[in-house]
Write a structure and sequence with these properties.
heterodimer; A: 113 residues; mainly beta; six-stranded mixed β-sheet; four-stranded antiparallel β-sheet; 12 strands; 0% helix; 50% strand; B: 114 residues; seven-stranded mixed β-sheet; 11 strands; 56% strand
């Protein structure tokens, strides 16, 4: 079945640093791919998504490109802010036909001033 | 309005208590979900309702009992819980429950079982 592997955290950066969080997946076919973000004390929010190979999802300065050659969907941001401190989850749909999300383990990002 | 609301925000209960969690959305979505999230872990799916009918139960113990009174409301009734059930309970919704759809999450209810 579909699965996702996400880089271990925590990731600690200074403000304005470049961010990459790695995500690789195993799947049948080319499923949609998602990044969700969970700010402290909150639920999850969709950050961005890509529905087909070579698509680039983008939102709030974050980007991720669906690369089928490397089965990857790495999250990047050119200049992080303190307000980006959160847990980031890479996700893809369950292969069993209903709308269940398979989440990565999550990567905690801490940005310091 | 892209908001899913959940009440209460926090709940403390004993192992013999009965309590309920409530979730509401006004986006016209016809699929609603309950997730359980332990600290430092991703959410785990518990139940899926599609068009007010329970479509998926991920082998959840019977001490958790979901209910969907109408297309906007989702409840989770709790009875005889164990301390290991302490977690953040998240509700989500999506347009129809088809795959793959974006799910919209509420802020969660943080549950502590003593």
């Amino acid at each position: 079945g579909n699965s996702v592997t996400q880089m271990e955290g925590p990731v600690t950066l200074s403000e304005e640093a470049f961010l990459t969080i790695n995500c690789t997946y195993t799947a049948t076919g080319y499923p949609s791919l998602f990044w969700y973000v969970q700010y402290p004390g909150e639920g999850l929010q969709l950050l961005l998504k890509a529905t087909k190979a070579d698509d680039k999802g983008s939102n709030k300065g974050f980007e991720a490109t669906y690369r089928k050659e490397t089965t990857s969907f790495h999250l990047e941001k050119g200049s992080v802010q303190v307000s980006d401190s959160a847990v980031y989850f890479c996700a893809l749909p369950f292969s069993g036909g209903y709308n269940k999300l398979i989440f990565g383990a999550g990567t905690r990002l801490a940005v310091h001033p | 309005d892209t908001e899913v609301t959940q009440t209460p925000k926090h709940l403390v209960m004993g192992m013999t208590n009965k309590k309920s969690l409530k979730c509401e959305q006004h986006m016209g979505h016809r699929a609603m979900y309950w997730y359980k999230q332990k600290a430092k872990k991703p959410p785990e799916l518990m139940f899926v309702y599609s068009y007010e009918k329970l479509s998926i139960n991920e082998s959840v113990p019977s001490r958790f009992s979901p209910e969907c009174p109408n297309s906007s409301l989702l409840n989770l009734h709790l009875h005889a819980l164990q301390p290991e059930d302490s977690a953040l309970y998240l509700c989500a919704s999506s347009p129809t429950g088809g795959s793959p759809e974006t799910q919209y999450f509420g802020p969660g209810t943080r549950l502590l079982v003593l």
